[in-house]
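Reopening this one. Same input as before:
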Amino acid sequence: MASILDLLNTDKGSEFISKAMDKTGESKDNITSALGLALPILLGAIKKNIQDEKGARELNSALNDNKHGQEFLDTLKDKNPSAMTSEGSRILQHILGSNQENINKTLSTTLGIKESSISDILKMAAPLLMSVLASQKKQEKVKTSGLDDLIESVMGSSGKFDSSLISAFLDKNKDGSIIDDVSGMIFGGNKAKKGNGGILGGMLGGK
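Same output, byte for byte:
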């Protein structure tokens, strides 16, 4: 299937971005830039969490829940942004745990977007991502043992930078120095030029 980032170029992606703009007051470019990093980071965190049997069972159970799946995607235009952030907050607590604040802060500083906006974007993105995974899981009849491959397929080309970037974001022992390191990974060492070179430029077509 297509990468999760390809979703941003679809009607569903446009609907989601519009809701995130209404919720945060941020521009379309800021929302898109934040999602370009947030979605792969969340997928990487999920992938890390299912490396043990307990985590895999918990994810399998969550993806089988009726609140996630194609129905969510089909009715996205009717979703209330506040309800999405409320649901997303619970999901992120499970996926990111104590790393959530660190990720919000680093994305905010790296992208030049308010931390409160980053927080809301991640919270809204969480149920969207879970529904994409749940829908694909159902279509392909994926069992617990196949979740790792499912995540890889949804990750698509973003998986090529998953290891180093995710490790940087999810290392809760890091302090503020992580920001320059992550900026270098994303912007090719020049964080003043959003989207030019580095990971973000590749993900967003150099825009």
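So the earlier flakiness isn't reproducible anymore. For the record, Residues 4-203 form one domain.
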